Backbone:
């Protein structure tokens, strides 16, 4: 069943001004419950605009957004419910921390939902556990944490609302490789444990290729393609034309194909590439 | 919502008015204001209005903006006209109802005052429409530089103004982002009682303050790394130059000023 669905969603910035710009042009997509989606696109391709429609922070100029099959813009009261159903983590979410302690900050969302003390407590500890914050860190001021820890605390703040769909805008930007891996491992774990929909916006094909069930590629406000990773990376030439770098290993295999080794066009992980090359060399696959 | 706030009201263009040296433009605007106060009759105000209209036409700033600049002072215009209309009791009676009385003199003074206020606003908004805030601070720094003699930190004040102007759009954008992030966590900013609304501001102000301090520190470090040490011996990338346009503008303004003074003497 579709958790988020858009029908001919169009959004225009600065309508009736000289600065008019179509940010989204008739986007019709369906995102199913429990899916892990990678959203990729160039700067200005409409990624951020699109995800802000999913939880009603932005209102479509025309077209519809349905969450759980409901058009929440039709009913103002639903708007707030949708924010709890679709959790949105902005880019650099650590700048939104404000409470005295990390625990209180994580509790901000659940508190706004009107839950009772015990439930809030459970959710805070659940979320903290998921992102790997210790009980000691929970009692610290958010401003005492390191950059990566702050980021994880902020993500926990949204996870604690236990949204049916969790959307993260560039969750790993500005972190070192170790921090990046940690965030992505954490998201993978969250996805397998909670079985909720996760949508990750990223610039890096490499990161997205590793975990996404389906990849949504945006280009200049329209959907370029929305398909499984093998099919998306099978179009690597076109992707490069719209200025998106495909994973390095896909490029290597592409060059090998050009040289006459027929290795197929759907290679996007190093493990799979290794298998193919070893098989070609006649080695036994371990 | 927040993006609708425009900082200053600079309307870019390349008209002769835009090209004037901001220092000269600032001085001429002051001259225009003095001119309006020197005018003693409706004729004088008429000359001021003519000056204003010609300058506005030359600047190619849309007339709608001229009208827009008047919007905030509508209450002031109303209060001035009402006060003058009903409280000046000299002159012939035009209209009477109970204790209210409008006289010819009241009517004339009201018109005169209102016309003067409108011209004041239009004239000074022409300056801000055609001069970028940064140019304006530069001009102010130049014009105030004699005050350095009496140890007024003119450069530092101007630098503070420049930095403030530079960071207002950045902070607006940041506020917008933080507001959205907290809304995504279910904060109610636009609903609820007054107390709820105030409480709803805390999650926005704290992150905003924290990031302002962070930015201030980063900027200070960056400036120090480039050996910034205040105004002493500092040269400018963008030099202000006066040109023949400025001379023409000065002559043009002075002619109008002279016309107003002449009118004052002739019409007694």
Residues:
């Amino acid at each position: 069943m579709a958790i988020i669905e858009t029908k001919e969603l169009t959004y225009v910035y600065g309508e009736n001004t000289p600065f008019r710009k179509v940010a989204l042009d008739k986007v019709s997509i369906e995102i199913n419950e429990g899916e892990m989606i990678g959203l990729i696109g160039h700067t200005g391709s409409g990624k951020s605009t699109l995800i802000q429609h999913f939880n009603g922070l932005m209102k479509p100029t025309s077209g519809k957004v349905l969450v759980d099959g409901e058009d929440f813009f039709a009913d103002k009261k639903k708007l707030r419910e949708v924010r709890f159903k679709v959790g949105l983590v902005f880019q650099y979410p650590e700048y939104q921390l404000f409470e005295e302690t990390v625990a209180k900050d994580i509790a901000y969302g659940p508190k706004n939902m009107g839950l009772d003390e015990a439930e809030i407590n459970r959710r805070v500890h659940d979320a903290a556990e998921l992102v790997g914050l210790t009980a000691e860190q929970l009692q610290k001021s958010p401003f005492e944490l390191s950059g990566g820890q702050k980021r994880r605390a902020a993500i926990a703040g949204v996870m604690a609302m236990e949204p049916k769909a969790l959307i993260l805008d560039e969750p790993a930007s500005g972190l070192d490789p170790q921090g990046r891996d940690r965030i992505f491992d954490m998201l993978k774990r969250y996805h397998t444990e909670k079985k909720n929909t996760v949508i990750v916006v990223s610039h890096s094909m490499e990161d997205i290729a590793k975990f996404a069930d389906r990849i949504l590629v945006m280009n200049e406000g329209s959907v370029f393609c929305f398909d499984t990773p093998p099919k998306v990376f099978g179009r690597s030439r076109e992707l490069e034309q719209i200025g998106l770098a495909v994973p390095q290993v896909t490029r290597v295999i592409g060059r090998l194909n050009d040289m006459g080794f027929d290795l197929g066009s759907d290679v996007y992980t190093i493990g799979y590439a290794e298998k193919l090359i070893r098989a070609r060399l006649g080695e036994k696959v371990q | 919502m927040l993006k609708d706030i425009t900082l200053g009201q600079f309307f870019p263009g390349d008209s002769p008015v835009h090209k004037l040296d901001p220092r000269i433009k600032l001085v001429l605007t002051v001259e225009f204001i003095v001119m309006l106060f020197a005018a003693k009759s409706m004729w004088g105000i008429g000359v001021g209005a003519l000056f204003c209209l010609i300058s506005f036409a030359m600047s190619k700033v849309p007339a709608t903006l001229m009208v827009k600049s008047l919007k905030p002072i509508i209450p002031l215009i109303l209060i001035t006209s009402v006060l003058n209309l009903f409280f000046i009791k000299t002159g012939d009676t035009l209209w009477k109802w109970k204790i209210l009385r409008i006289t010819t003199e009241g009517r004339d003074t009201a018109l005169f005052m209102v016309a003067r206020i409108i011209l004041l606003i239009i004239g000074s908004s022409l300056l801000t429409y055609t001069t970028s805030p940064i140019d304006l601070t530069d001009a102010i720094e130049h014009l105030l530089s004699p005050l350095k003699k009496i140890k007024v930190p003119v450069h530092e004040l101007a630098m503070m103004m420049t930095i403030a102007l530079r960071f207002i759009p950045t902070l607006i954008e940041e506020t917008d982002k933080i507001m959205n992030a907290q809304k995504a966590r279910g904060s109610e900013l636009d609903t609820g009682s007054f107390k709820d609304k105030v409480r709803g501001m805390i999650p926005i102000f704290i992150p905003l303050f924290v990031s302002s301090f962070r930015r201030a520190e980063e900027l200070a470090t960056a400036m120090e790394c480039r050996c910034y040490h205040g105004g002493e011996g500092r040269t400018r990338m963008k030099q202000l130059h006066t040109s023949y346009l400025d001379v023409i503008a000065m002559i043009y303004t002075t002619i109008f000023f002279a016309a107003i003074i002449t009118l004052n003497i002739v019409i007694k």
Strands of chain A lie at 2-13, 21-32, 36-41, 62-67, 70-71, 86-89, 165-169, 197-202, 214-219, 222-227.
